[in-house]
Structure formats: structure tokens, C-alpha cells
Write a structure and sequence with these properties.
- The protein has 274 residues and is of the alpha/beta class.
- The protein has one domain: NAD(P)-binding Rossmann-like Domain (Rossmann fold, 3-Layer(aba) Sandwich), CATH 3.40.50.
- Helix content is 45%, strand content 16%.
- It is built from nine helices and nine strands.
- The longest helix is centred in the middle third of the chain and has 29 residues.
Length: 274
């Protein structure tokens, strides 16, 4: 039995993952900004904590990690899942909104990592799973700020993995595609500023202009997959979830490779002459 601390458990993959971890017999600290959204998970189960946690609040982070450690003896698996979408052309983005986005996705994840690592280092074991998004690779117009926040998570996790591997701790990043959650509903925000010149690009992705097709991704299958990967003795470090994520990543990678090959001579031309 291991102890999982999962952020953003009120809905979606976070909720499905908490339920799957509980069903598998793990201790689970299920968190949400509104504790009432996860309280049912802990009813009648001594192996589950329902905790209030806004990952932008340092005091709540410290309290949640401390309670999980006090009750269960330590956090073995941290899942940084909390987050939401934000759509705007880069010029339209509101600075306060963008800072809040980064505070939640990037700085919140970093703060959670720093809070659990002392215990993991002391035990020389642990797993950190950071949720990114295929948007970090695909960079769709109208989601530039969201893509940037998720790309920051990718970069941080890659370095973190190398730092922690000698200590017996692993870190990995997950880039999901579209899943049948409320991400495109309650969890999606956008700029209040609208600039008509972007109507044909970023404007097409504004909430009022998008008709969302049914997502291919099954949150329950995603949760079960994450459970299997975390339980595996050798995790991949980077994992795509969903056939759409797989296809978009490959297409983006091939396009990038073609581009760098095309401009290889220019890239090499900046070296000192030999």
C-alpha cells in the first residue's frame, strides 16, 4: 500500500484517478479547492483524506502535505493534476489572468514538489507525476499562454528527473489529449479582451465560437493507465495519453525535424571558422 496525494480531484481525470487509487487499496489524499467536492471519497474509509487545497496558497500546500504525512506516514506518489484552460490571442491576454494561470499550473506544481521532496529524499523513494498537455507540443493558436505554462512543466520535469534519479525518486510528465471531462466547460476561461484582427485565428477558439466534438479520451482508462505506469518499476519519464495526443505529437515532431533539416546550414553557420 502506498500513499497518493492528488491535486484537482473534484472532476475529470483527477477524480477518476483518486477513485482508481482508492479501489486499488492505496492511501489517498484527495484534494480540491472546495473540499465538499471530494468529501464523499473519504466517507467511511480510513484510507482516504479529503483535503482543501488551492495550489496557489502556500499555507494550504503545507497543511495538506503535513496532514497526509501525519496520517499516512508520508507521501509516496504526488500527482500534480490541478489546472484549467485559458484561451486568448497573445495580445489579448490579461496580465493578471496569465499570472494566475502560471501560478496554478507551473508555480503551484513546483511548490507541491518542493513540499513533498524532503520526505521522499529521507526515504529515498517516491514518484512525482506532473500533468502537462499536448498543447505544449502542438501549440494551438489561441492557447499560447496555456501551452507556455504546460511547456514550462515539461522543461522542469525533465531536469527534475535527472536530479532525483540518483536519490531513488522518479519524476515523469504526462501530455494528455482530449478527454471527456469538463475541461472545455467549467474549467475553461478566456480573455475579456477581443481584438477583431484575430477573428480568423485565435478567435475561432473562443468559447462562444467553438462547437466541441465528443472527446475520444476515457478518464477512467487514463486513471487505470497512470496507476499501471506508476506501479511499474521503470516508468517512461514522458507519456502521451490518447490517440489524438499521439498523432499530434508525431506530426509536430516530424514537422520540426523537417524544418531543422531545411535550415541546417544556417544553424551551423554561426560556429567559429576552423
Amino acid at each position: 500500500m502506498t500513499t497518493w496525494l492528488i491535486t484537482g480531484c473534484s472532476t475529470g481525470i483527477g477524480r477518476a484517478l483518486a477513485e482508481a487509487a482508492i479501489a486499488a487499496g492505496h492511501n489517498v489524499a484527495a484534494t480540491a479547492r472546495d473540499r465538499s467536492k471530494v468529501a464523499d471519497l473519504a466517507e467511511g474509509n480510513d484510507h482516504v483524506l479529503a483535503l482543501t487545497l488551492d495550489v496557489t496558497d502556500p499555507e494550504q500546500i503545507a497543511a495538506a502535505v503535513a496532514e497526509a504525512e501525519d496520517v499516512f506516514g508520508g507521501v509516496d506518489v504526488l500527482i500534480n493534476n490541478a489546472g484549467y484552460g485559458y484561451r486568448a490571442a497573445i495580445e489579448e491576454g490579461n496580465e493578471a489572468d496569465v499570472r494566475r494561470l502560471f501560478d496554478t499550473h507551473f508555480f503551484g506544481s513546483a511548490a507541491m514538489i518542493k513540499a513533498v521532496l524532503p520526505g521522499m529524499r529521507a526515504r529515498r523513494s517516491g514518484t512525482i507525476v506532473n500533468f502537462s498537455s499536448i498543447a505544449a507540443t502542438y501549440t494551438p493558436v489561441g492557447s499560447g499562454y496555456y501551452a507556455a505554462a504546460k511547456a514550462a512543466i515539461d522543461g522542469m520535469t525533465g531536469a527534475l528527473r535527472g536530479e532525483l534519479e540518483p536519490l531513488g525518486i522518479t519524476a515523469m510528465v504526462i501530455e494528455p489529449g482530449g478527454f471527456a471531462t469538463d475541461f472545455a466547460g467549467r474549467s475553461l476561461t478566456q480573455s475579456s479582451t477581443v481584438i477583431d484582427d484575430y477573428a480568423g485565428t485565435a478567435g475561432k477558439r473562443r468559447i462562444e465560437n467553438v462547437v466541441n466534438a465528443p472527446a475520444k479520451g476515457d478518464p477512467q482508462k487514463a486513471a487505470e493507465t497512470i496507476l499501471r505506469v506508476v506501479d511499474n518499476a521503470s516508468d517512461p519519464g514522458f507519456l502521451l495519453l490518447g490517440s489524438d495526443a499521439f498523432e499530434m505529437y508525431r506530426a509536430s515532431l516530424h514537422k520540426r525535424l523537417d524544418l531543422i533539416d531545411q535550415w541546417e546550414a544556417v544553424s551551423r553557420s554561426t560556429d567559429f571558422d576552423t
